[in-house]
Amino acid sequence: NDGMCGRIPYLHRLHRNQGFSLIEVLVTLVLLGVGLLGAQQMHANALRQHRESQQQARADQLAAALAERLRGHAAMAQLPGGPYVLDARLDHAPSVPADCVSTPCLLPEQAAAHDIASWMQRVAQELPGARVQVCPDAQPLDAQGLPDWSCDGASTGPIRLLAIKLGWPTRHDAEMVRPGTVLLASTGAPP
Q1: What's the pTM value of the predicted model, to 2 decimals?
Q2: Cα 170 to chain center, whole Å?
Q3: Would you tell me how many other CB atoms lie within 10 Å of the CB of residue 155?
């Protein structure tokens, strides 16, 4: 009987240690909640970065498209103060002059005005609230190597290089538009 009595307290202790206490369950739930919040934050950051990279890719494509247009209308692009030298905030899509839609443009100025208006309309659709600046600028980057809105370019002769600068509002600060893309485009003018 002594052997049997020695086992009963052991079985009683074993039975008492089975399962989890309320504190252990609460600690587990807190740790699980913190982990889920961290995963949610990582997912939100990934979506934001994906959106920003899509906007960057669109801006790069739009700047490259304008560079091609500048080369196609080199005579107009080389004019100081011509239709391609601009600084505009595109809160809505501008209207495209009807002169070149149904019939061909007769004057180079008309073709250039139509060309830049249709490009700006595309920018307004793809990058809402974007700022566009096209200007002669030998140093489109600031001292920290970041794109800068200022232009140094008062050109007295034909413009050889135009800086195409595109910026768009971020979700965090819709009022502040920083240049995100800068492309130097040759107008084809001889040196």
Answers
A1: 0.72
A2: 7
A3: 17
